Amino acid sequence: PSAMGLSLRRRVAAMEGLYVEYDAVEEDHHRKLQELEAEFAAASQKIFTRRQQIIEGSTEPTDEEVNKSSSVGDVTKDLPDPTVAADPQGIPQFWPTALRVWLKHSDVEGLEVSAADWAILDHLREVRVETWQPPNDVIASDADGEPLEGDDLDFHETQMEADVGFSIHFVFDEATPQLECREIALYCYGTGEVAEVAAPDWVEGQDPTVKMATKKVKRKGRTAEKVVVAKPVESFFRLFQLPDADDEADDERDEAELSVGELQEHVVALLREELVTRAGIYYIQSLSPDGEDWGQLEEDYDDWEPPAQAGRSRR
């Protein structure tokens, strides 16, 4: 720098000044994106809450809601005789039906749903997504394990505050015979990685993620004895396990079977972006598999793709 003339020094200094200006624009851009994401999440939640009210039968749809349907003309066609058949409350089996259609049409890699799973999922009452703020209780460190300081620490804390995660909740009937609890959940970072789970509390002997097997155990100097062990099996409810628990069972897992972490990586984002958002469309598709009676819904909606998630890499 000492060999530079004044004009060249000014030009070089301007490079940093312009970057500072760009940095401020970028910060403002990401702030606005976060505000838009929050606004979108709030508006979406309002719609999904209203949807669940209609599903449960706690309220009836308004004329305005019905008239927005592209297939409103079919609503009053071929009505059953009211003296013969009375309408049930809400929309029976809405979520189990939507889940079945989603599994049929979505590219869900590695997710196996057993008959034992469906015996439980047929009691599904609600699937919802909520915002979740991951706990910021981890000591921030660099690649060498050294604690972050100064600007690096400030940047990390800013990113943690901006990293709004989400949770996915599955709510079941109170009378679900296999469960001691009504609700299970996945708590995820904004990237979709599962951070925590509210795991199912199974009635003894009703856990569909394992099967009991008998094997012989030989001990030195003793006669082999038979012991009963729990062997992991393919199940939808493996999603609600933490990867650490799965790692302990690696020696019992089939080579073709995805680990819990891999399964969550493939499925969690699809639950959030497809099943929850499009559940009504999936249910309607189940009523008319050929798509002819309800406004060609498959044709209209199959090309839909979720928006890309905005993110910011560390400089």
TrEMBL record:
Residues 290-305 have a biased composition (Acidic residues). GO terms for cellular component: nucleus. InterPro entries: NAP-like_sf, NAP_family. It holds the Pfam family NAP. Residues 55-88, 288-315 are annotated as: Disordered. One of its GO terms (biological process) is nucleosome assembly. Belongs to the nucleosome assembly protein (NAP) family. This is Nucleosome assembly protein. The lineage of its organism: Eukaryota, Haptista, Haptophyta, Prymnesiophyceae, Prymnesiales.
